[in-house]
Amino acid sequence: MSQQLKQEIDRRRTFAIISHPDAGKTTLTEKLLLFGGAIRDAGTVKAKKTGKFATSDWMDIEKQRGISVTSSVMQFDYDGKRVNILDTPGHQDFSEDTYRTLMAVDSAVMIIDVAKGIEAQTIKLFKVCRMRGIPIFTFINKMDRQGKEPLELMEELEEVLGIESYAMNWPIGMGKEFLGIYDRYNNRVEPFRSETGRFMELDEDGQLIGDHPMKETSYYEQALEDIELLNEAGNDFSAERIANGELTPVFFGSALANFGVETFLETYLQFAPPPQGRVTQDEEVVNPVEEPFSGFVFKIQANMNPAHRDRIAFLRIVTGKFERGMNVTLARTGKSFKVAQSTQFLADDRETVAEAVAGDIIGLYDVGNYQIGDTVTVGKKLQYEALPQFTPELFMKVTAKNVMKSKHFHKGILQLVQEGAIQYYKTLHLEEVILGAVGQLQFEVFEHRMKNEYNVEVRMEPVGTKVARWIENEQDVKESMSGPRSMLVKDRHDNLVFLFENEFATRWFQDKNPDIKLYSLL
Ligand code: GDP
């Protein structure tokens, strides 16, 4: 592999932002894109989110709901690095794709609302990152608003998420009294809304040099006191532990006021890892510079253009370089074909990509060849390990409105399940179909696609939120254990699964049947 290609790969930084809705992901993303020069006007990303952004080929469902299912990949250059931000849809568009996207990044940025602390969706997404052991960088947002005490938030990180933290900077006041951040890492103070320049220097004792009205405030005093406490009792800074995902560097700021964002970006880029290798099914680690082109599909976007019924398979490049017109092999089927059409994603519009390297995400036009988790290679035959399945929380019983369409109904379901759009379960005797999802949107997309692609109208009846648990010792399960609060079903691999009414029903069952060993997927 040429030195130039190695350098190209090495400058990639690919990450996703994890947060609970409203913490400020869109606002922060937009500011990052502005710094990277990828967009010119503030409001571009926002407008896309609220649906004011007219892009002709969005999915119908996207238009109806005014949300972005397309959830693109955004790319920009900063400080010699090429940054790829993968969007992780939240709100109603939360789905398994959101989790799978986290399989395609090398690090994550976790945004926390200073007033709300760690919220439900953040916990879920954090767990996936933790499982992968990728570095997680924390941005505590909305410091221009009154919120929780910073020390309390640091404690929350350790107690709720179980991750140790290191404050890279520390707020001086907050809300109306927010004066700036004390940058422990870069040894400077960055004043908020100041006309005296972006940074103020510190002396050897960590005090602001010279006279400054800030020094007279109790907020400055408090910040220094807190920092002393952190120096004495807090975790030590360790680049190695950050890289292993054991220690999260914490930054404070305000995305809306564009304060602390550039400092965050610069420091983040120093520690964020370049493209990492992947493990194959044979448990071999393949490094980005080892092989010619290879990658895996982590998401399939259907119906980008309803007239053509085409789909786009999102592929994370793991090794080497992709060039348009390349002959690639799909590991699962052994089929080879030429990739004529591919796409790279930018903030504003899709662009045709001529070449891309390890760390980048490309979109491959697809007529039904790809499934989620597929490995695509050139040359050496290899297959990356399967993507994990996630424990669904929402369930729907589904039937065809017209019984005459039963064949199409089953064909459609089979394909959509294989593709990874939705999870499939069936009841034991009647073999009624129950679909599982982690987000409501998956059902809507399912319904829409059954109608448009398979010409079958479906009836969906909510079975409600459930706790799904797989069973280690299936042989000990008796059908009599199945009841309205503990429904026994089979998954698509014919494994038995209990769908419990709620956590309470799960515990009740476990008390009554202590010998049955239950477990959940991720
Ligand atoms: P998302 O749902 O995580 O993408 O959140 P948004 O970026 O859409 O932000 C949610 C709301 O919080 C919007 O009204 C933003 O204007 C507001 N917001 C985001 N960042 C800040 C901040 O730093 N300070 C304040 N006061 N509001 C913010």
UniProtKB/TrEMBL annotation:
<keyword id="KW-0547">Nucleotide-binding</keyword>
<dbReference type="InterPro" id="IPR032090">
    <property type="entry name" value="RF3_C"/>
</dbReference>
<feature type="binding site">
    <location>
        <begin position="87"/>
        <end position="91"/>
    </location>
    <ligand>
        <name>GTP</name>
    </ligand>
</feature>
<dbReference type="GO" id="GO:0016149">
    <property type="term" value="F:translation release factor activity, codon specific"/>
</dbReference>
<dbReference type="InterPro" id="IPR041732">
    <property type="entry name" value="RF3_GTP-bd"/>
</dbReference>
<dbReference type="InterPro" id="IPR027417">
    <property type="entry name" value="P-loop_NTPase"/>
</dbReference>
<feature type="domain" description="Tr-type G">
    <location>
        <begin position="10"/>
        <end position="276"/>
    </location>
</feature>
<dbReference type="InterPro" id="IPR053905">
    <property type="entry name" value="EF-G-like_DII"/>
</dbReference>
<dbReference type="Pfam" id="PF22042">
    <property type="entry name" value="EF-G_D2"/>
</dbReference>
<keyword id="KW-0342">GTP-binding</keyword>
<dbReference type="Pfam" id="PF16658">
    <property type="entry name" value="RF3_C"/>
</dbReference>
<dbReference type="GO" id="GO:0005829">
    <property type="term" value="C:cytosol"/>
</dbReference>
<dbReference type="InterPro" id="IPR004548">
    <property type="entry name" value="PrfC"/>
</dbReference>
<dbReference type="InterPro" id="IPR035647">
    <property type="entry name" value="EFG_III/V"/>
</dbReference>
<comment type="similarity">
    <text>Belongs to the TRAFAC class translation factor GTPase superfamily. Classic translation factor GTPase family. PrfC subfamily.</text>
</comment>
<protein>
    <recommendedName>
        <fullName>Peptide chain release factor 3</fullName>
    </recommendedName>
</protein>
<dbReference type="GO" id="GO:0003924">
    <property type="term" value="F:GTPase activity"/>
</dbReference>
<dbReference type="InterPro" id="IPR031157">
    <property type="entry name" value="G_TR_CS"/>
</dbReference>
<comment type="function">
    <text>Increases the formation of ribosomal termination complexes and stimulates activities of RF-1 and RF-2. It binds guanine nucleotides and has strong preference for UGA stop codons. It may interact directly with the ribosome. The stimulation of RF-1 and RF-2 is significantly reduced by GTP and GDP, but not by GMP.</text>
</comment>
<keyword id="KW-0963">Cytoplasm</keyword>
<feature type="binding site">
    <location>
        <begin position="141"/>
        <end position="144"/>
    </location>
    <ligand>
        <name>GTP</name>
    </ligand>
</feature>
<dbReference type="InterPro" id="IPR009000">
    <property type="entry name" value="Transl_B-barrel_sf"/>
</dbReference>
<dbReference type="GO" id="GO:0005525">
    <property type="term" value="F:GTP binding"/>
</dbReference>
<dbReference type="GO" id="GO:0006449">
    <property type="term" value="P:regulation of translational termination"/>
</dbReference>
<dbReference type="GO" id="GO:0016150">
    <property type="term" value="F:translation release factor activity, codon nonspecific"/>
</dbReference>
<keyword id="KW-0648">Protein biosynthesis</keyword>
<dbReference type="InterPro" id="IPR038467">
    <property type="entry name" value="RF3_dom_3_sf"/>
</dbReference>
<dbReference type="Pfam" id="PF00009">
    <property type="entry name" value="GTP_EFTU"/>
</dbReference>
<dbReference type="InterPro" id="IPR005225">
    <property type="entry name" value="Small_GTP-bd"/>
</dbReference>
<dbReference type="InterPro" id="IPR000795">
    <property type="entry name" value="T_Tr_GTP-bd_dom"/>
</dbReference>
<feature type="binding site">
    <location>
        <begin position="19"/>
        <end position="26"/>
    </location>
    <ligand>
        <name>GTP</name>
    </ligand>
</feature>
